[in-house]
Amino acid sequence: MTALWQLNRENKQLPCSLIQTTPGTELVLQSFCYGMEINVYPQWKLCLQGPHEFYFKNLSQKRRAMEKNGDNRKLRVCVATCNRADYSKLAPIMFGIKMEPEFFELDVVVLGSHLIDDYGNTYRMIEQDDFDINTRLHTIVRGEDEAAMVESVGLALVKLPDVLNRLKPDIMIVHGDRFDALALATSAALMNIRILHIEGGEVSGTIDDSIRHAITKLAHYHVCCTRSAEQHLISMCEDHDRILLAGCPSYDKLLSAKNKDYMSIIRMWLGDDVKSKDYIVALQHPVTTDIKHSIKMFELTLDALISFNKRTLVLFPNIDAGSKEMVRVMRKKGIEHHPNFRAVKHVPFDQFIQLVAHAGCMIGNSSCGVREVGAFGTPVINLGTRQIGRETGENVLHVRDADTQDKILQALHLQFGKQYPCSKIYGDGNAVPRILKFLKSIDLQEPLQKKFCFPPVKENISQDIDHILETLSALAVDLGGTNLRVAIVSMKGEIVKKYTQFNPKTYEERINLILQMCVEAAAEAVKLNCRILGVGISTGGRVNPREGVVLHSTKLIQEWNSVDLRTPLSDTLHLPVWVDNDGNCAALAERKFGQGKGLENFVTLITGTEDLLLVEGMSVPKDEAVSAVHLIQAAKLGNVKAQSILRTAGTALGLGVVNILHTINPSLVILSGVLASHYIHIVKDVIRQQALSSVQDVDVVVSDLVDPALLGAASMVLDYTTRRIC
C-alpha cells in the first residue's frame, strides 16, 4: 500500500511525504508532519492508493465494534495550559487531537502566567495556533514570593470547579510539575474527572519533584518520556497498564526543525551581525527552596557572560518566587541596555528551537537545556541544583556550586562552540501518535477509582502491551566490499529486520544510500516496537573511532578515505553514532553475544577474502568479485590449486595463532569468517606441532555468530547507551 500525506489549509493541498508499507502492516502516523514553518498548524488529510485500511488495525476494529453497539461518542478532552513552557509540550498533542475530530472533542483552558503582560501575554501564541480558548482564568496572585504561589493555587482551586462543571470533560491532560498544574489535578480528581499526566516519574532536584509526584498520585494515566521515569512510576505503585512510555511530545516538532531557514530568526532576535554558533542563549529561573542562593548564582552568571563578551539572548525568568529579585539584578547590571545582550520576555517555541539549535552554548537552569537542547548536540552549562536529578546527554556540563564567577567563566570557555552527538534520551519524534493511540484505548466504562500496585516491584517488570513496552535496539550498518547492510538489532542480539543493497562505487551514491537505508529502518523500527538508541557502523580499513572517521579503506571499497560518517548520520537521524573497523566489531560481537561472553580475554581472527581460481562447474557473473566462497567451491569441486591455497593459508594462520598464544596467552581463540571452519583443523594441527606445552590447552573455536560485523556494530551502541540509561 502507498499512502500519500497531504496538508490541507484554507483548501490548499500541500504534498508532505510518501510512506511505503506492505499489505497487512500497520501505518503509524508520522510525527514529522508537526514540523511546519508556520504558527498555525494545518489540518492533515490522508489520501490512499490501494485497497488496504490506513489506520491502526486494532483501533479500526474497536471503532466498528463501538458503532455496532451504539457507543460512538467522541472522547471529550480538556487540555489546560499554564505557561509558555508547558504549552510547548502540550501543543503537539493538541494539534494531534484537533486533527482527528471523528475521535475527539478538544476544550482548551488557559490560566497562570499566560495571561500576564510582564510574562509576554503568551496566550496569544495559542490563538495564533488557531485553537479556540474555551476559558481564560486569571489565577496568579502577584508578589512573586512563596506566599503568592500558595495564594495562586488557592485562587485556581476556587475558580476551576465552575469551569469543569460547564465543560464536563471525559479526561483532563495536565503537564509537568508547576504549582498551577497541582491545582488543576486536585480539582479534576475531586470532581471525578480522569487525569492524564504528562512527564511524570522524572527527577529534577527542587520543590518541583514534590509537586510532580503529588500529581502522579492524583492522575489516572501517565505519559512518561524515559525508561527511568517509567520505572520510577512503577516503583511509586502506579499501575503499569496505565503507563505509556511515549517520549517528550516537543521532540515530535524539534527533531524536524534544525534544517529550516534559521538565519533570519537569529538576526531578528540577536542582530544582523551575529553568526550561527557565535552567540549564547541564557535562561535561568529562581530555585524556590533556596531563593537567596539562586539570586547570587544569577548575579555570577551575568558577570561571567559580560566578561565572556559574546552576543547573548537573555530570557526573563518564570513567575516562581524570587523572579522579581532576578529581574532587579538584570536591571541593576544594565542588561537590557548592554550592547552584547538582548533581554526578552518570550520567544515563540518554533523560533526558540532554531535559536538553541544553532547557538554556541546555552546556559542556565531551565529543563529545556537538559531535555530538548540535547537533540541538537548544542553545548549546555547547567547551573545549580534545579535540574540536578535529570537524565542528560554528554552535551551538558554541570556547575553545581558556583561560588565565584570564575567557575562559570571557565565553563563557558570549555563549552562554547563545541558540537556534541545528538541525544534522544527524551524522545524519538513519535510521541504524539503513541499518545493518541493511548487515549483511544481508554475505556470510560472502567471504574474511576485508581488501583495502586503495592507489591514489591521486580527488577524487570514488563507486560505484552505494544504501546507500553518497546524493545531497546540499535541500528547496525556493515559496509562490505560488495554489499551494504543495515539491521535493527535487539538487546539480546536478535536481528529484528535486515536490509541489503549493493554497495555503490562512488562516495556520493554510497553515503546517500546509507542515509536512505537508515532513515527507512528507523521508521520501520517504530512499527516493530523497537526503540533505537543509536547507530553503529562496521567498515573495512583504518578508522578513528573517537571522531567517527574512516581514515583509509580497503581496496574493495572505493572513494572511502578520510570520510566523516558520524556527522551526516547524527544530523539526519538525531542519534549518537559509533564507527569502528570490521575486525574490532567482530571481536565486540563475540564479547557481547558469542563465545567470548564472560571471558576476561580472548582473541578473534577474521578469515578474509582470497584470490582463487575458477574451475569447470563454477560460474561467476562477469561483474561479481571473486570471493572466499568461490575458493571453497573450487576446492570442493576438486581444484588442486584451490585445495593447496586453503592448506597454505591455514598453516600460515596456524603459525600466527601460535605466535599469539606465546605472546599474549589468551583464554580463547575464535576464528570468524566464511573460511574459519575450513581452517580450524589445520590451525589445531599446527598448534600441536609448534606451540609450547603451556599453551596447548588453549581452545581454538569457530565463531557461531551469523553476522558478527552487524552484531559488533550494534554492541557499540547497546553497551554505551544502556550503561548511561541505567
From TrEMBL:
Residues 103-440 form the UDP-N-acetylglucosamine 2-epimerase domain. PANTHER family: BIFUNCTIONAL UDP-N-ACETYLGLUCOSAMINE 2-EPIMERASE_N-ACETYLMANNOSAMINE KINASE, ROK (REPRESSOR, ORF, KINASE) FAMILY. It comes from Canis lupus familiaris. The active site is at residue 582. Gene3D superfamilies: 3.30.420.40, Glycogen Phosphorylase B. GO terms for biological process: UDP-N-acetylglucosamine metabolic process. SUPFAM superfamilies: Actin-like ATPase domain, UDP-Glycosyltransferase/glycogen phosphorylase. This is Glucosamine (UDP-N-acetyl)-2-epimerase/N-acetylmannosamine kinase. One of its GO terms (molecular function) is hydrolase activity, hydrolyzing O-glycosyl compounds. InterPro entries: ATPase_NBD (IPR043129), ROK (IPR000600), UDP-GlcNAc_Epase (IPR020004), UDP_GlcNAc_Epimerase_2_dom (IPR003331). Coiled coil: none annotated.
